[in-house]
Amino acid sequence: MNNKTTKKAICILSGGMDSTLASYIAKKDGYEIIAVHFNYGQRTQNRELKAFRDICDDLGILEKYEIDIPFFTQIGASALTDKSIDVPTNGLEAGVPITYVPFRNGIFLSITAAIAEKEKATAMYIGVVQEDSSGYPDCTEEFINDISKAINQGTREETSIEIKTPLVHLSKAQIVEEALKLNVPLIHTWSCYKEEDEACGVCDSCRLRLNGFNLANQIDPITYKVNL
């Protein structure tokens, strides 16, 4: 194989709609994909892991990392990792919501950078969405640019890693439209913060996803307990 066919990208793949689309874009961009998934004690950890494995099968990804990060449950401070804190179901909160996991994307990107350096990958894809997200501070373009500089300063001189955020300025409706254009198997993705058997339909993530489908005039292929 020549160099043009062996450029590698590490895709942070949660199993959600955004990270899945970002991974499909990486494939379209001609990268050999190495997928990374994090089990960090989130409420829907088992369901997200199933989604990750299904999507890796869909994409034909042969090399993948499933990384356990147990300390998030020790820290708590987030409804996703502390079961004594209820996941909000009354609509999006103002400011940074209680579902924010402290510096999660910063930690994910740091670990992924170590994998990228080992694998001699030149790109890392992450499905952050700035303008239509839940207000998380680690999903902004400014944050990604700054941590990209730190990663390249803190790795070998010959290491050069570009963090690619193809969805950062898209709305959820545009994400749905792009996913359909690329034939992304959205039925295999999981977005719900609360449930693992059937999506709740009322948490922030379900609301954002459902609203995106509604604005795109499309039907979400997964089922919900409540469809607002």
UniProtKB/TrEMBL annotation:
Keyword hit for Ligase: yes
Protein's GO biological process: tRNA queuosine(34) biosynthetic process
Keyword line: ATP-binding, Ligase, Metal-binding, Nucleotide-binding, Queuosine biosynthesis, Zinc
Gene: queC
EC number: 6.3.4.20
Function recorded in the entry: Catalyzes the ATP-dependent conversion of 7-carboxy-7-deazaguanine (CDG) to 7-cyano-7-deazaguanine (preQ(0)).
Identification of the protein by name: 7-cyano-7-deazaguanine synthase
InterPro entries cross-referenced by the UniProt entry: QueC (IPR018317), Rossmann-like_a/b/a_fold (IPR014729)
One annotated GO molecular function: zinc ion binding
Binding site for ATP: L13, S14, G15, G16, M17, D18, S19, T20, L21, A22, S23
Cofactor note text: Binds 1 zinc ion per subunit.
Catalytic activity from the UniProt record: 7-carboxy-7-carbaguanine + NH4(+) + 2 ATP = 7-cyano-7-carbaguanine + 2 AMP + 2 diphosphate + 2 H(+)
Necessary cofactors: Zn(2+)
Residues that, per the record, bind Zn(2+): C192, C200, C203, C206
Functional pathway: Purine metabolism; 7-cyano-7-deazaguanine biosynthesis
Family: Belongs to the QueC family.
